[in-house]
Amino acid sequence: MIKIIAIGKIKETYLVNMIEDYLKRINKYHKLEIIEIVDNNIKDEGTKIVSKIEKNGFNIALDIKGDKYTSNSFAQLIDKTLMHQGNINFIVGGSNGLSKEILELVDMRISFSDLTFPHGMFRAILLEQIYRSFKILNNESYHK
Fold first, then answer.
1. Cα angle vertex 63, ends 3, 59, to 5°?
2. Tell me: the pLDDT tens digits for 68-92?
3. pLDDT value at position 98?
4. Alpha carbon 15 to its chain's center
């Protein structure tokens, strides 16, 4: 199982539609669930995130200071992690980032860019990269 644990609700219709489209595409390959946590202060958000993390999951924080991956290396990370751990939790913070508690709890941090993205757009980008990973892993063509 792959979980995306994210702060905030997506309000923009075009982003909701894009996210739903990628969810359908990904679920043909692997079960994925998005858990939204209400925006609050960073400490409360951290407590709620911890309550949603499965004990046996591999926890990845999306953090601007994290390691960067290519699409191919990201696909390999997903493949190896699902084989060895079975579950991946991608944790996406709110506008204040992630609490120190969460950053110390995670198994790794990944950065998609040094740029800052709106949360809804980033969630769509994350889903697109997960979908792209499954296309790569299954040797299926996908636009570049």
1. 35
2. 999 999 999 999 999 999 999 999 9
3. 94
4. 15
Whether residue 56 is contained in a domain is answered as: yes
Give the helix/strand (H/E) hosting 36.
strand 32-37
CB proximity list for 65: less than 8 A, separation 6 or greater: 109, 111
Read off the pTM: 0.95
Q: Which amino acid is at 80?
A: K
Q: At 74, which CATH number? A: 3.40.1280.10
pLDDT band at 16 (very low <50, low <70, confident <90, very high): very high
Q: Does residue 142 fall inside a structural domain?
A: no
45 CB-contact burial (10 Å; exposed 0-12 / middle 13-18 / buried 19+): buried
Q: Which domain holds residue 73?
A: 2-137
Model confidence pLDDT, tens digit, residues 89-101: 999 998 889 999 9
Residue 144 lies in a domain: no
Average pLDDT, the chain: 94
The total domain count for the chain is 1
